[in-house]
Amino acid sequence: MARDAMRNHSPANTGHPDADTALLRALLHDGSAAFALYGTDGRYRQVSRALADLNGAPASAHRGRLPSEILPAGLASQIEASLARVLADGIPRREIEQREAAPELGGGLRLFDSHWSAVRDDAGAIIGALAVVHDVTDRHRVADLLGSTQWRIGKLQTVTRELAGALTIGEVRAAVAKLGQVTGAAHVDLRLLDSVGHTPWPQPGGSGSRPVPAPRTPNSTDEERWERRTLSWPPLLAATVRAGQAVYLPEPGAMHEAFPESAHWDEAPDDERAWAVLPLVTAAGPVGGLYLAFESERPFDEEDRAYLQALAGQCTMAVARARMHEREHRQVVSLQEALLPKRLPSLSGVEAAFRYIPGSMDTEVGGDWYDLFGFPDGRVGMVVGDVIGKGVTAAAGMGRVRAALRALAFTDPSPRAVMSGLDRLFDATENAESLTTVVYAVFDPADGSLLMSDAGHLPLLVVTADGAPRYVDATPEATPLGWSEERIEHHMTLGSGDIVLGFSDGLVETRSASLDEGLDRLLRAVRSAPDQALEPLLDHLVDTMLREHHDQDDDVTVLAVRVARST
Q1: Please, what's the largest Cα pairwise distance for the chain?
Q2: Cα(112)–Cα(131) distance, rounded to whole angstroms?
Q3: Which end of the chain is more exposed for a tag (fewer CB within 10 A), N or C?
Q4: Cβ atoms of residues 553 and 511 within 8 Å
């Protein structure tokens, strides 16, 4: 019968009895799923370990016995009444707040919600009942604590700190999802209006509207535009945000009084019995709404409303801040893309490829750059650099240094001369915070010689034609630009098919791994590359390095130059 129960309550019959049995066994021994299977005689047939633990008796002690033989009289009578109803009519139902004395809670009550459904055989006859039980004691304890002003202040401070650290809309949503823990709400939903649109917004004391400019669709009305923007929202939330006033509904009957049109809405879920719905409003107009649904009817007194309004205010500021951050992020990415070369030049004697990946949305874009250019005598210059800092300032600084380096290089290509010239430039024009690291190399295809110098940047990675990688550093302890010193020039010879890679620290350094660990991983990634052609090689390196460490904190820049193979 247990197997029949699982078959009738699974989304689909797999046709594999052994699989059904294994699934039932796993559920019975899972410490998180609390359920019981009853026969038509009202006796336990199967009990999960989680429910047995709640009842304070082993599963084996339940089987074949009535609830009244296991549980306290009050709780047992509630369960047997629910069981009798579902066995009689087969209608699924939810029982709210079944109660049991809990001495471990200082004489308080332990509260349970349970979902009941009939178990039927293949012919549709009822052969038992299934009860899935949820312990909701903690949720009710939170609801009781909401009456404590001190507790509320502490929780508001906690929420404020978490929302203040949210840089993206996704992080704001994650923080808002936890509001159920500090409000007692069973369901929390944050919905946002798109940042581009025209939303009618009632003004205090009047019927006018404050527009948020956006393109208008020909022949579309404000009503139609609003409906399109809130099509997927709960109707109560959409109506509240449009009205522009917070709504507190202590019980289901209050919804029709506040919103007569609710008669045409879909019925609220059975586990929603009270609601607090609050618009999120900035100086520019509404940005969205906060929807809190409670499982039990509850009054919203003056302190409740003030507390929830404070939470909504913190959510509004977090949304506005995250949207500003994302907008600035897009602007800086656009600026960098405008400054960086979109394609590399075709130069005699070498082939080249690059990868540039801006920092993730929850970090500010940095000042990474790369460059490749040819000299009139056939030599090739390659550069990878990083302006220390984030945002527009770093991107603008990158543009200045990149232009200055090119100008110096075409005056005297020598890496030592270029680095020394950049030091003088920084001493004369840049402030102390504008530190920049850079590695610059000049390759001569005529004799295979490569000269390089660096200012505090990571070493170049040289991969020989047979796939063996090694790091090459002109001066391991070199200082960044802005901390002038005598620059050292390193000389080496490359062979046919050798590859030189310059890269930024975003490729090898993460919050969870040190720089040395990242450099070692990069060597292993090169050795494991299935293809040494430049484009597949860079794809493999970037994919391997970023796949293993998802916490990308910075831009990722890689520039690869291969010596043309001899024909």
Answers
A1: 98
A2: 12
A3: C
A4: yes
The DSSP result for 58-98, as a single string, is -HHHHTTS-GGGTS-HHHHHHHHHHHHHHHHH---EEEEEE
Cβ atoms of 234 and 291 closer than 8 Å: yes
Question: Among 40, 45, 53, which Cα is nearest to 2's?
Answer: 45
SS3 call for 100: strand
Is 420 within 8 Å of 428 (Cβ atoms)? no
The pLDDT tens digits for 163-178 are 887 778 888 888 888 8
pLDDT at 13: 44
Six token digits for residue 287: 């940005």
Q: Using DSSP, how many helices (H) and how many strands (E) does the chain show? A: 17, 19
The whole-angstrom separation of Cα 171 and Cα 322 is 9
Q: Between 427 and 562, where is the model more confident?
A: 562
Please identify which residue in the block is written with the tokens 């990634």: 525
Output phi, psi for 301, to 5 deg.
Answer: -80, 180
Please name which of 338, 250, 248 lies closest in space to residue 291, comparing C-alpha atoms.
248
Q: Degrees (nearest 5) of the Cα angle 538, 349, 465?
A: 50
Token output for 146: 């909401």
Lowest mean pLDDT among 92-106, 183-197, 204-218, 500-514: 204-218
Quote the DSSP letter at residue 209: B
Cβ–Cβ under 8 Å, residues 255 and 274: no
State how far the alpha carbon of 222 is from the alpha carbons of 126, 202, 259, 287, 443, in Å: 53, 13, 20, 16, 63
Separation of alpha carbons 341 and 362, rounded Å:
25
CA pair distance 69, 91, nearest whole angstrom: 26
Q: How far apart are CA 489 and CA 312, in angstroms?
A: 60
pTM for this entry: 0.50
Is residue 294 within 8 Å of residue 272, measured between CB atoms?
Answer: yes
**Which residue(s) pair with 22 in the sheet?**
none
Distance (Å, whole) CA 365 – CA 88: 65
Q: Which residue has the tokens 């936890």?
A: 178
Mapping DSSP to helix (H, G, I), strand (E, B) and coil, where does residue 471 land? strand
pLDDT tens, position by position, 274-304: 999 999 988 778 889 999 999 888 888 888 8
Question: Which of 193, 252, 254 lies closest to 225, judged by CA?
Answer: 193
| CB contact set of 283 (below 8 Å; sequence gap of 6+) | none
Residue 343 is encoded by which pair of tokens? 């394609």
* Length of the chain measured in residues: 567
Report the distance separating Cα 241 and Cα 189, nearest Å. Answer: 13
Say yes or no to pLDDT of 471 above 90.
yes
Task: Give 3-state DSSP helix, strand, coil % of the chain, rounded to 5.
Answer: 40, 25, 35
